[in-house]
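Re: [ENG-882] Designed sequences occasionally contain unexpected residues at chain ends

Forwarding the minimal case from QA. C-alpha cells:
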C-alpha cells in the first residue's frame, strides 16, 4: 500500500491524472464500493451550490445526489434508475459538474463490475475537480470563456478537425491553477489513504 500511495503523491504533484486514477483504482478495489461512492459523493455535493447559483431552475443534480446518498446509507429507493441528460450549459464548469453527477450515478446504478464502478466514481471526482478549476478560471476571464464556448458550439456544428483550446491551451498551466489542482489531488490522496487504512483495520478486526 505504501508504494501505491507514494505513486499517488507523485502523480498528484505532477498532475498526472491518468496515472493517479489507475493507481487509486488499484487501491480502492479492496474497499467496499459504498465507501468509494461516499467519497466521490462528498466531492460532487460540495460543488452543487456553485452549480445551483448559476442554474437554480435545474433540479435533477440535487435529486440525483439525494438518491445516491440514500443508496450509500443503505436506504431502499426506487428513484432515478435511469438518467438521461440532454442539457448543455454555457456557464464555466457546469458541464464538468453535470458529467460528474452522471458518472457517479453510473457507479451506483449502471456499472456492475467492481473495477468499472470504482473507475466511474473516481472519474466523477476528476470531473468535479475540473469543474472547480474551470469555474474559477472562467469567472476571472469571462469574455475569453464566452468566446471559447461559442467557438466550441460552432466547431460541433461545422465538424472541423481541431477544436478550439480554452485560453489557447495555457490556462491549465497558470500558476494559480497549478497550485489549486495540486492541492485538490494531494488532499484526495490523504482521503484515500484514510479509507484504505480504515477498511484494512476493520478487515483485520473481523478476521481476528
Amino acid at each position: 500500500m505504501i508504494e501505491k500511495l507514494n505513486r499517488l503523491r507523485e502523480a498528484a504533484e505532477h498532475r498526472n491524472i491518468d496515472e493517479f486514477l489507475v493507481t487509486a483504482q488499484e487501491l480502492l478495489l479492496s474497499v467496499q464500493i459504498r465507501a468509494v461512492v461516499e467519497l466521490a459523493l462528498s466531492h460532487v455535493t460540495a460543488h452543487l451550490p456553485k452549480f445551483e447559483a448559476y442554474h437554480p431552475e435545474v433540479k435533477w443534480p440535487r435529486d440525483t445526489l439525494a438518491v445516491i446518498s440514500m443508496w450509500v446509507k443503505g436506504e431502499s429507493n426506487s428513484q432515478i434508475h435511469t438518467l438521461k441528460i440532454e442539457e448543455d450549459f454555457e456557464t464555466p464548469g457546469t458541464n464538468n459538474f453535470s458529467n460528474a453527477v452522471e458518472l457517479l450515478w453510473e457507479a451506483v446504478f449502471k456499472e456492475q463490475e467492481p473495477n468499472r464502478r470504482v473507475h466511474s466514481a473516481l472519474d466523477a471526482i476528476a470531473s468535479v475537480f475540473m469543474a472547480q478549476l474551470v469555474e474559477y478560471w472562467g469567472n476571472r476571464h469571462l469574455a475569453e470563456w464566452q468566446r471559447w464556448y461559442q467557438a466550441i458550439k460552432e466547431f460541433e456544428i461545422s465538424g472541423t478537425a481541431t477544436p478550439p483550446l480554452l485560453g489557447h491551451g495555457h490556462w491549465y498551466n497558470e500558476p494559480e491553477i497549478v497550485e489549486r489542482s495540486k492541492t485538490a489531488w494531494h488532499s484526495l490522496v490523504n482521503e484515500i489513504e484514510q479509507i484504505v487504512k480504515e477498511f484494512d483495520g476493520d478487515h483485520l478486526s473481523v478476521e481476528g
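QA comment: On inspection the terminal residues look reasonable. The chain has eight helices and no strands. Proposing we downgrade this to a documentation issue.
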